[in-house]
Amino acid sequence: MSLTLYTHPLASFCWKVLIALYENGTPFEQRLVDLGSPEASAEFRQLWPIARMPVLRDTARNQVLPETSVIIEYLALHYPGPERLVPADPDAALQVRLKDRFYDLYVSEPMQKIVTDRIRPEGRHDPHGVEQARALLRTAYDLIEQDMADGRRWATGDAFTLADCAALPALYYAHKVEPFRHSHPAAGAYLDRLMQRPSVIRVLAEAEPYFKFFPET
Fold first, then answer.
1. Quick one: 141 and 68 in the same domain?
2. How confident is the model at residue 123 (pLDDT cuts 50, 70, 90)?
3. Which DSSP category does 211 fall into?
4. 41 with 69, same domain?
5. Which of residues 53, 78, 103 is at a domain's end?
6. What distance in Å separates the CA atoms of residue 165 and residue 153, rounded to the nearest whole number?
7. Which three-class secondary structure state does DSSP give residue 55?
8. 205 domain-assigned
9. Which pLDDT belongs to residue 216?
10. Is residue 51 left, alpha or beta, with left meaning phi > 0 and alpha meaning psi from -120 to 50?
11. 24 and 114 in one domain?
């Protein structure tokens, strides 16, 4: 097996790549990285000095790839499966990439700001930054609600794509820190559809034993 994905079980960006792998039944080894272990951290930093997950290693092609969108596009190029997560049509592909960036930058990133602030040491919290993150999330929710209110099933239409791989972890965790189901019902219904996807069910089941470590408050 040439593909190894270095992950953390609670990391939203790791979920994004796992969903893509499970959608296409791509054979790979998943290696959990404990950055709290000096040995594991040093080993991972040799692979990718930035030390952010996920990272895909492909021994068959002698490649090490960080960054979720790049990983998924790489898989589509070199390990394609039945689900085309990036459309062949250039204009459609551009829309998918736009939504992918939207969910990463305007939902995942502000969500992570709120979560990481919860685990900062006493006296090192950033209430202004957290409120800015919440405001950005609320704006993003409004835009998602507009998109989903037009009757589309997935992020860009009828096909499940890279953008939906990004949307699930972003919305799943964002709802925990800035709930939106009641205020944005179409966005909430979209999250429900995502959570019924077999690849997503598998990802959530694998993460479930670790949810007790998520900083709820």
1. no
2. confident
3. G
4. yes
5. 78
6. 14
7. strand
8. no
9. 77
10. left
11. no
Res. 1: pLDDT tops 90: no
pLDDT digits over 17-69, tens only? 999 999 999 999 999 999 888 998 999 999 999 999 999 999 999 999 999 99
Neighbours of 175 (CB within 10 A): 18
Q: Give me 87's structure tokens.
A: 């459309």
Last residue of a domain, one of 55, 78, 101: 78
Q: Return the structure tokens found at 187.
A: 């966005």
Number of structural domains found in the chain = 2
Task: Provide the 10 A C-beta neighbour count for residue 82.
Answer: 7
Q: Is the dihedral of CA 118, 123, 129, 134 positive or negative?
A: positive
In this structure, what are the phi and psi dihedrals at residue 208, rounded to the nearest 5 degrees? -50, -45
Is the confidence at residue 144, as pLDDT, over 70? yes
Using CA atoms, how far apart are residues 189 and 27, in angstroms rounded to an integer?
31
User: Residue 161 — φ and ψ, nearest 5°?
Assistant: -135, -175
Q: Which domain holds residue 141?
A: 90-197
- Order the strands of the 3-7 sheet from edge to edge: 29-32, 3-7, 55-58, 63-66
Q: How many residues does the chain have?
A: 217
Q: What is the DSSP letter of 210?
A: G
Beta 55-58 vs 63-66: how paired, if at all?
A: antiparallel
For residue 217, the model assigns a pLDDT of 66
For residue 141, give the CATH number of its domain.
Answer: 1.20.1050.10
